[in-house]
Amino acid sequence: MPKASEIKKHAAVEYNNRVMIVRDIERSVPQGRSGGSLYRMRMYDVVNGGKVDETFKADEMLTLADLIRRPVVFSYIDGDEYVFMDEEDYTPYNLNKSSIEEQVLFVSEDTKGLLAVIVEGSPVSIDLPSSVELVIEDTAPSIKGASASARTKPATLSTGLIVQVPEHISTGDRIKINTDEKKFMGRAES
């Protein structure tokens, strides 16, 4: 059983006899109070999508839920549902756009390393790899002679995600993005 301080985003925990996915964690250190940090977690019920905000002390014990992660590839969009295909047994997993709207900004048809999070037989979330490669759809023209560490400019990627990129990067470039920090990591190797 992990402590609240060890829980990461997208973890599944049992809370009030329900399985919850942790979507966001804010750590705070109250002034003048012994006992250390507090962790405010925004959690979503995997069954009904209900939202719960709860604060835990750093050393409070939480129970991880029983979940399975399956390797998947993004297949297609059907209305509000994103359909992912299991890479091993080709099972389709449908996820509502609203439950994975943060993750889909990093997902294209050729994104590798995706995992479907399955709880009690139902897909509830997508785990992203630490980095993905996406193509820049639109950015200001590149500046000749701009150094790699100089100023940045916004770039809109093929999925709609907007990240800051160095001035020498152009529309059409394939770049690598850190999925945790939503940050440019460099050009993708072709």
From TrEMBL:
InterPro entries: Elong-fact-P_C (IPR015365), NA-bd_OB-fold (IPR012340), Rib_uL2_dom2 (IPR014722), Transl_elong_fac_P/YeiP (IPR020599), Transl_elong_KOW-like (IPR013185), Transl_elong_p-like_YeiP (IPR011897), Transl_elong_P/YeiP_cen (IPR001059), Transl_elong_P/YeiP_CS (IPR013852). Residues 132-187 form the Elongation factor P C-terminal domain. One of its GO terms (cellular component) is cytosol. GO terms for biological process: peptide biosynthetic process. The keyword Protein biosynthesis applies. Keywords: Elongation factor, Protein biosynthesis. SUPFAM superfamilies: Nucleic acid-binding proteins, Translation proteins SH3-like domain. It comes from the Bacteria. The keyword Ligase does not apply. One of its GO terms (molecular function) is translation elongation factor activity. Residues 69-124 form the Translation elongation factor P/YeiP central domain. PANTHER family: ELONGATION FACTOR P, TRANSLATION ELONGATION FACTOR KOW-LIKE DOMAIN-CONTAINING PROTEIN. Belongs to the elongation factor P family. This is Elongation factor P-like protein. It comes from Pseudoalteromonas aurantia.
